[in-house]
């Protein structure tokens, strides 16, 4: 289930997605005491987060948490937690409570139980989840044929530990914590935000036939629990 919103420019995409995110979070706050907003790293969502950080929502009631994380310390240049702190948790949104994935465990596998416990305490289903996708067809840290991928696609837990095969996409930081497929679809609204022709071509390939293990975004596209809205611009 993919609802496609195609834009001529990134500016038009950002304006529309900002409005839709604000509406989703506002609706959640009107319906419940707390909202949950699950966010991804990467270059595409940075300007969206910067815009949202300025919006006068009741951020104290919006629990922000990560979709995935490299197993590096907060403050590291490649940390998604650092990225979200810098781009979203500023200005008005600086009041939002935040949950990261990296904990004191030496490895993601050793830190999984504590991470799962923390994520189970979030307001569920998550009100809004922002996903990205790489040119290799990964989403969150569900990387092609990664160690732990099958578990992440089949578990009922919200979180999974993954070790990806090193590539240009992963860089040297192959050890990750991620929402599982069950964690991703535990959402009222799923947004897939991608830009550029390369990623659109990858998405079209993922929409075709082929193993989920080769392009794990297929698991999200093929599920029927929650619709996915694509936002794309050149």
Structural class: alpha/beta
Instruction: Specify the biggest β-sheet.
Output: 7 strands, parallel
* pLDDT averaged residue by residue: 97
Shape verdict: globular
Number of strands: 10
Q: Which strand order spans the largest sheet, edge to edge or round the barrel?
A: 1-10-9-6-2-3-5
Order of helices and strands: EHEHEEHEHEHEEHEHHE
Task: Write up what this structure looks like.
- This protein is an alpha/beta fold and 234 residues long.
- Helices cover 33% and strands 20% of the residues.
- It has 8 helices and 10 strands.
- It has helices spanning 10-31, 46-52, 80-87, 108-120, 149-154, 181-184, 197-207, 217-222, and strands at 2-6, 35-39, 62-66, 68-70, 98-99, 128-131, 159-163, 175-179, 190-195, 228-233.
- The strands form 2 sheets. It has a 7-stranded parallel beta sheet, with helices on both faces. A 3-stranded antiparallel beta sheet has the order 4-8-7.
- α2 links the parallel β2 and β3 (62-66).
- The two termini are 22 Å apart.
- The model has no long low-confidence stretch (mean pLDDT 97).
């Amino acid at each position: 289930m993919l609802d496609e919103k195609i834009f001529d420019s990134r500016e038009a995409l950002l304006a529309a997605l900002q409005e839709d995110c604000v509406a989703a979070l506002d609706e959640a706050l009107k319906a419940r005491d707390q909202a949950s907003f699950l966010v991804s790293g990467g270059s595409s969502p940075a300007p969206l987060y910067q815009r949202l950080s300025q919006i006068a929502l009741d951020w104290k009631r919006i629990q922000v948490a990560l979709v995935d994380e490299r197993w590096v310390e907060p403050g590291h240049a490649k940390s998604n937690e650092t990225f979200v702190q810098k781009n979203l948790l500023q200005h008005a949104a600086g009041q939002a409570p935040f949950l990261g994935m990296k904990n004191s465990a030496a490895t993601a596998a050793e830190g999984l139980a504590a991470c799962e416990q923390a994520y189970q305490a979030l307001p569920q289903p998550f009100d809004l989840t922002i996903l990205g996708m790489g040119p290799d067809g990964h989403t969150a840290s569900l990387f092609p044929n990664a160690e732990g991928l099958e578990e992440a696609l089949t578990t009922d837990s919200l979180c999974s530990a993954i070790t990806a095969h090193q590539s240009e996409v992963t860089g040297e930081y192959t050890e990750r914590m991620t929402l599982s497929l069950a964690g991703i679809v535990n959402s009222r609204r799923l947004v897939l935000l991608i830009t550029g022709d390369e990623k659109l071509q990858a998405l079209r390939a993922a929409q075709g036939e082929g193993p989920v293990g080769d392009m794990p975004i297929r698991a999200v596209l093929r599920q029927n629990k929650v619709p996915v809205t694509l936002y794309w611009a050149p």
